[in-house]
Amino acid sequence: MKTNRLFPIFILFLIFGTVSCASISQEETSAASYKNIQATEFNKLKTDPNTIIIDVRTPAETAEGVIEGASLFVDYTASNFGTEINKLDKTKNYIVYCRSGGRSVGASEQMIAAGFKNVYNLEGGISNWKGAVVAKP
To answer: Which pLDDT tens digits describe the chain residue by residue (137 residues)?
Structure first.
């Protein structure tokens, strides 16, 4: 009789244990992600000498002007995008932007999948940028 009363309690502990482990695994998996940022955080991050600003727009778009401080230009739509980002130091901080934020999200996701640790996506891209836009260096 005592065994029958303890069985439901055992099942509850088993379920709680499984759910707890599953939620930890999801947290660990989602921990490797890029972060969306606004201009304020962009301006703070760009002062760090360990930060590189990447413009992932096409050459025609970058010819129209780039965010001041951008130093790396890798066209997200180019077939060699993956090859080019894999040449970069994965320990640096990278701020990624495009025209409106769509391609930079894809680029950020690809960089995280490639093992980059500190990737920041400028929400809204250069279209939403209120700071200086300069000629491509």
So the answer is: 555 666 665 554 545 544 444 434 334 444 679 999 999 999 999 999 999 999 999 999 999 999 999 999 999 999 999 999 999 999 999 999 999 999 999 999 999 999 999 999 999 999 999 999 999 99
Q: Which domain holds residue 13?
A: 1-31
Q: Are 131 and 70 in contact (CB under 8 A)?
A: no
Alpha-carbon gap, residue 95 to 67, rounded angstroms: 11
Calculate the alpha carbon distances from 125 to 28, 101, 103, 115 in Å.
Answer: 28, 5, 9, 23
* Residues known to be catalytic: 98
The backbone torsions φ and ψ at residue 87, rounded to the nearest 5 degrees and listed phi first, read: -80, -10
Residue 118, domain CATH: 3.40.250.10
Please give the angle made by the CA atoms of 117, 135 and 52, to the nearest 5 degrees.
Answer: 15
The pTM for the full model equals: 0.77
